[in-house]
Design brief:
With about 90 residues, the chain is of the alpha+beta class. It has 3 helices and 3 strands, in the order βββααα.
């Protein structure tokens, strides 16, 4: 199992796709025999997981955009991405 930290550069696993479901006006994460419907904030974070940006960079962008405490955002982002990694959605 991969343990994520602020220096990690997560990306969607090869078998996973983030797609906009226009009919329902929401993002979905598609994997074989699984569909995950993240809320808008989670979908925004997942869109930033391109394998190049570190979690620290993602957190910095979110903290600036939402004028929110960085430490709070970092904890939430790492927890969410770790959960996705544990479920096999991220590599």
């Amino acid at each position: 199992m991969t343990s994520l930290s602020e220096t990690s550069c997560p990306a969607l696993a090869p078998h996973v796709v983030l797609k906009r479901d226009e009919a329902r006006s929401r993002w979905v994460i598609l994997a074989p025999e699984r569909v995950l419907v993240p809320d808008e904030t989670a979908a925004e974070v997942v869109r930033m997981t391109d394998g190049k940006a570190t979690i620290a960079e993602i957190v910095d962008r979110l903290a600036e955009k939402y004028a929110a405490p960085r430490d709070e955002i970092a904890g939430d982002v790492i927890e969410m991405l770790q959960d996705l990694a544990d479920q096999g959605y991220l590599k």
